[in-house]
Amino acid sequence: MTEIRFTIPIQPPAKTFQDKGIGISKSGKRYLYDRADLAEEKEKLKAWFSHFRPEQPLKAPVGMSLGFLYKETDRHHAMTWKTTKPDCDNLAKTITDILQELGFFKDDKDIAELYVAKGFDEVPSIEVKLVELEEVMAAI
To answer: Does some domain include residue 123?
Structure first.
């Protein structure tokens, strides 16, 4: 069972996939695009994640755990949950898209198990764990 695990010392994203812009082409069709601040944030994350890219994509089914620790503030102390934006599902989608683009797995449909947590800590970071799962589920 192959496992990839890494932690990067970076403030987690404040912008997510949900922050995309909507444009209208000359033919009148709508399309999504990355706003400048989202594109910049994604490029920064790609640079960090690329250091941990596997030689071959993980085989499906894949389990993924994501931890987002934001820098503590006067109002939000270390080791407390973050219950404000961005939403866990939007954070997960942003990171999943980047990991897929970098070749950690072939397609985000390969992710059969997902755990996402967000909180505050003294040192901000993003924790990623990917694992090839057994074909048979133990239990839900």
So the answer is: yes
Look up residue 88 and give its two tokens.
């866990």
Which parts of the chain have pLDDT scores under 70?
17-20, 33-36
Q: How far apart are CA 5 and CA 128, in angstroms?
A: 6
Is residue 137 in some structural domain?
A: no
Structural domain harbouring 114: 3-132
3-state secondary structure 53-70: CCCCCECCCEEEEEEEEE
* Cα 36 to chain centroid, rounded: 18
In the chain, the N- to C-terminal Cα span, in Å, equals: 19
User: Are 38 and 20 a contacting pair, CB within 8 Å?
Assistant: yes
Number of domains comprising the chain: 1
pTM over 0.70: yes
